[in-house]
Amino acid sequence: FRVLALESSADDTCAAVVDASRRIWSNVVCRQNRLHEKTSGIHPLVALRAHQRNMPGAVRKALHDAKLEMADIDGVAFTRGPGITGCLTVASNAAKTLAAANNKPIVGVHHMQAHALTAHLTSSSPPSFPFLTLLVSGGHTMIVLATSLVDFRVLATTVDRSVGSTIDRVVTLLQIKWADLGPGPGLERYCAEPVADEGALENEPPITMSGKLSFSYTGLHSWVERTIHAAGGLDNVKKRAVARAFQNAAFAHLEEKLLLALKWCRNNDHPVRHVVVSGGVASNSLLRQRLKTCLSQSIYDPVDLVFPDPLLCTDNAVMIAWASMHRFLARDYDDYSIETLPTWSLEDLKNPPDPPAV
Ligand code: ATP
Ligand code: FE
């Protein structure tokens, strides 16, 4: 069974073809970084217009790269939600129209379920259920217990901002140049550059929500603001010291909560063997290294850490195709009139909310 999938929930316009035997036939990602660097973040209307411009070309390229035509496609999947209201409709309308014109079934996919299941597509030994997943992206920071392909329990989420959006804001505050792939990779590259002078900080980053199964990132963001303000602007040495301390503190916060979640699993009789780390921030190599060290020293039962390929951690349509596969194979299709859901909890996969009232 071959699926053509489309994704446009945030800032990347994506199309891909994947089949039920886990073969990735094509993977097209049109990034909008250059547009959003000018506005220091995603502007919904700018993103919407870019999706509208890029989606036809992305679909054409996905088929072309796969050397396939619509006749060779068995189903069309798209991101139904959650995501930016207008942006979601681009992939959804394109998918529904393509499918209706070619008489193919459709499936609307939950974007975070797709991030969580990416490891099942790419890993040589797919994680067994139940597994824990740390989802760290632009819109979410969550630890989720997955007990089946469609049953997810959110153990921890952020009380304010996500780690990804905090990284993006701090990159702007510190005026760090974006890398080709965006602000997160820009911070990673900047912090990894070797320096002669390490620099010292008067105040260490705050530790927030200690001992609680909840994330919070506004305190860390304010610490960066305060540090810049107190110094009346930062010289290069200080700026790099702040960037590194911020990145380390942001990741230490993830580690603490992951250990608390493993403790919760042990105390509540959920024997997890795997921890899947996915979403854009999971492509960060320092985070990968830190989590490996942290879990290898943990007092809990050993777990295997699973990281999808960094290019499949950030947004892509391969993961959307894969997350739709079990539904296509079960002939559990959606109706062509299905609507997008900008807000949609991973816990409500089987009972999606009503679309927002107009
Ligand atoms: P969501 O998945 O929650 O809907 P999204 O789809 O916009 O949000 P993703 O593409 O999954 O988000 O992740 C984007 C986020 O990941 C951005 O905040 C980006 O800066 C961050 N990111 C990407 N690469 C890295 C990296 N190497 N280091 C740190 N952060 C990164
Ligand atoms: Fe995402």
TrEMBL record:
Residues in Gcp-like domain copies: 24-322
Known cofactor(s): a divalent metal cation
Cofactor note: Binds 1 divalent metal cation per subunit.
This protein's GO CC annotations: mitochondrion
Biological process per Gene Ontology, one example term: mitochondrial tRNA threonylcarbamoyladenosine modification
Assigned keywords, A-Z: Acyltransferase, Metal-binding, Mitochondrion, Transferase, tRNA processing
Catalytic activity, as annotated: L-threonylcarbamoyladenylate + adenosine(37) in tRNA = N(6)-L-threonylcarbamoyladenosine(37) in tRNA + AMP + H(+)
Main localization, broad class: mitochondrion
Enzyme Commission (EC) number: 2.3.1.234
Localization: Mitochondrion
GO MF assignments: metal ion binding; tRNA N(6)-L-threonylcarbamoyladenine synthase activity
Top-rank taxon, per record: Eukaryota
Known function: Required for the formation of a threonylcarbamoyl group on adenosine at position 37 (t(6)A37) in mitochondrial tRNAs that read codons beginning with adenine. Probably involved in the transfer of the threonylcarbamoyl moiety of threonylcarbamoyl-AMP (TC-AMP) to the N6 group of A37. Involved in mitochondrial genome maintenance.
Self-association state and partner proteins as the record states: Homodimer.
Protein family according to the UniProt entry: Belongs to the KAE1 / TsaD family.
Cross-referenced PANTHER family: TRNA N6-ADENOSINE THREONYLCARBAMOYLTRANSFERASE, TRNA N6-ADENOSINE THREONYLCARBAMOYLTRANSFERASE, MITOCHONDRIAL
Name of this protein: N(6)-L-threonylcarbamoyladenine synthase
Lineage of the species this protein comes from: Eukaryota, Fungi, Dikarya, Basidiomycota, Agaricomycotina
